[in-house]
Amino acid sequence: MVLSVIPPHVPLPGSGGLPGDGRYGESPRSGRVVRRGLSLTGAVLATAFYCLSLTPALLPRPWWLQGVEAGVTAVLGYALGAVLGTLTRALAGRRLILPARSPQRAAWSAVAAVCVVAVVVTTALSVSWQGDMRRAVGMRPQVVWWQWALVPVLAGLVAALLLGAARGLRLATRKVAQPLTWLVPRSVAYGTGIALVAFLVVGFVQGFLFKGVLHVVENGASLTDRGTSEGVVRPTSTTLSGGDGSYTPWDTLGAKGRDFVGGASTRADIARFTGRDAKDPVRVYVGLRTADSLDERARLAVRELERAGGFERDVLAVMGTTGTGWVNDQGSRPLEYLWFGDSALVAMQYSYLPSWVSVLTEDEAADASRALFTAVYDKWRTLPAETRPKLLAYGESLGSYAMENALGGTLKGLTGRTDGALFVGPTYANPLWKTLTDGRAPDSPSWRPVVGDGAQVRFAQVPSDYAIPAAPWTGPRSVYLQNGSDPVVWWSPDLAYRQPDWLDDPRAGDVSSAMRWYPVLTFWQVVCDLAGADAVPDGHGHRYGTMPTTAWAQITRPPGWTPERTAALAKHLGARP
Questions:
Q1: What sign does the dihedral 268-274-279-284 (CA atoms) show?
Q2: How far is CA 562 from the centre of its chain?
Q3: I need a surface site. Which of 13, 39, 88, 236 has the fewest CB within 10 A?
Q4: Burial 503-532 (b: 16+ CB within 10 A, else e)
Q5: Cα separations in angstroms, 527 against 317, 487, 517
Q6: What does the alpha-carbon distance between residue 232 and residue 224 come to, in Å, rounded to a whole number?
Q7: What pLDDT sits at residue 103?
Q8: Which residues pair with 394 in a beta bridge?
Q9: Cα(20)–Cα(14) distance, rounded to whole angstroms?
Q10: Taking the alpha carbons of 504, 509, 515, 521 in that order, is the dihedral positive or negative?
Q11: Do 553 and 422 form a contact (C-beta atoms < 8 A)?
């Protein structure tokens, strides 16, 4: 082999640079963004990270989402490889004996060939992996081959854009640092350059980009909140907010509030299904525009419940809302049928923003639910114990986090202040959910934990899970609905550095047996799964379908109600448009 001695002042090619790029003695054009070739170690790790990004995750993905994920992941691998190359040069000393230019070119050619083969083979294998994930969540396993062939193309474009941006920042750092080298040592000059560029970038992202985008989203959400969904009209019933005699005007309820009260079940609908007399349900909603402050809105909700007769019903449920004030119809409507309309539901809006934005201000959600539940509870506990309604709590996703916090985040608060609760698709931040999951029976999986003897709280993905454990289920009863493949439930920051319990055996039935945990990568995979959490059939991802119907039947146990009627009701509500 032909060898050459590399002088101390010439950078090593092992972590970046082809002959002729300025790293073998030529003078690079320091003003160019692309002034040197790719890092060899960076290219190898970028390929490895790309391949790992295509391995099974919680949910199947559309080709474009997989392409974006793979491109970002490849850049992470490249950055790691470039850092390792730099450290290798620093630790190797000032002189190394390295292959001359021709062997270096041959090495690059061999690495490039291996990388191309790895990309092609892994992309082809990922079609089978996608099929397995699609099959696990009840979807047809086939993917459109020509779309999937675009995954590496899109990944390459995304990676090129990100790498170009990174090199642009490096150029900016160099431009800031070079004039300073006349005044201070080189290390100080470049440290100052890095700090200044980082300050400007963070300031731009937080001060202009983030706030600007948030402002645009909030303005758009505020305008949307003034609209009314097609087919929703102002009610005339005195049992509904916005109706005749209501203290909460229809035009102040917000779009989701109008959906909530305008979509209430009617006495005729309930009687037609159940075959017996029914009442018009009570639905109370207070929008952001209805009153100026949080406490005023909570007090108004209680007054509206009193006006509509909500405290005189058999069941009264406080509903935690998601960002825009939305309450899932599949979580609210079953109670009205199970109790023949002798029910009252109350909810309150706290934001115009959708959950994916309002989650950044989750304390606002907790404060709103706490104010509402406390106001309702304070009134409810003054009523005679023998005649007051069953007091229930409900929340889905961010709403479950908010409602848990309203109850103090403890099992004592849950069982001591309610007659039952239903939490759907809880988040990693839910304080009580986390405590119950961590304290589960050792032989129970984290995706279906057994808490104590199951007397008060149970977890379910399918109806048969309510029977686990076999011990008596006394009360007050509470249920957590969580799908094994729901990224909203299973994403957490520690995925970046610790293997999660939900990947232990046995796994939930809708989680691929081929999924593996990789530091940082699995964290990023599940982040991408969040984007498609609702793009799967009911019973998987963040879609719970009619499971709240069976859950409410188990929690509230209506007199004379049978499992057969529950199944029929779930089918009836599932068929609604």
A1: negative
A2: 35
A3: 236
A4: beeebbebbbeebeebeebbbbbbebbbbb
A5: 32, 8, 14
A6: 15
A7: 67
A8: 319, 422
A9: 15
A10: negative
A11: no
List Cβ neighbours of 39 (8 Å cut-off, separation of 6 or more). 15, 16, 78, 81, 82, 85
CA–CA gap between residue 389 and residue 384 (Å, rounded): 10
What stretch of H or E contains 423?
Answer: strand 420-424
Please name the residues in contact with 424: beta carbons below 8 A apart, sequence gap of 6 or more. 328, 331, 394, 395, 396, 397, 400, 480, 481, 544, 547, 548
- Say what the pTM is: 0.86
β-strands 282-286, 96-99: how paired? unpaired
What the block records as the tokens of 340 is 């023949």
DSSP output for 133-149: HHHHTTS-S---HHHHT
**Nearest Cα to Cα of residue 69 among 524, 555, 554, 538:** 524
pLDDT digits (tens, 9 = 90+) for 232-283: 899 999 999 999 999 999 999 989 999 999 999 999 999 999 999 999 999 9
Residues 6+ apart with CB under 8 A from 256: 225, 321, 324, 325, 326, 327, 349
Going by C-alpha positions, the residue among 67, 69, 66, 56 that lies closest to residue 134 is 56
The closest alpha carbon to 283, from 252, 253, 251, belongs to 253
Q: DSSP for 475-529, please give it.
A: SSEEEEE--TT-HHHH--GGGGTS--GGGSSSPPTTS-TT----TTHHHHHHHHH
Which residues does residue 357 pair with via DSSP β-bridges, in sequence order? Answer: none
Six token digits for residue 455: 């007397």
Domains by residue range for the chain, with CATH = 3-26+33-168 (no CATH), 234-483+544-574 (3.40.50)
CA distance 260 to 319: 11
> What burial class does residue 185 get, using C-beta atoms within 10 Å of its C-beta: 0-12 exposed, 13-18 middle, 19+ buried?
exposed
Q: Quick one: DSSP state of residue 310? A: G
Quick: pLDDT tens for 134-184. 999 999 998 888 889 999 999 999 999 998 887 777 777 777 777 777 777
CB 115 within 8 A of CB 78: no
Name residue, tokens 């907790």: 366
**Largest alpha-carbon pair distance within the chain?**
96
What single-letter DSSP state applies at residue 316?
A: E
Rounded to an integer, what distance in angstroms lies between the CA atom of residue 450 and that of residue 535? 29
Q: Which residues contact 474 (CB under 8 A, 6 or more apart)?
A: 455, 456
Residue with tokens 């490889």: 81
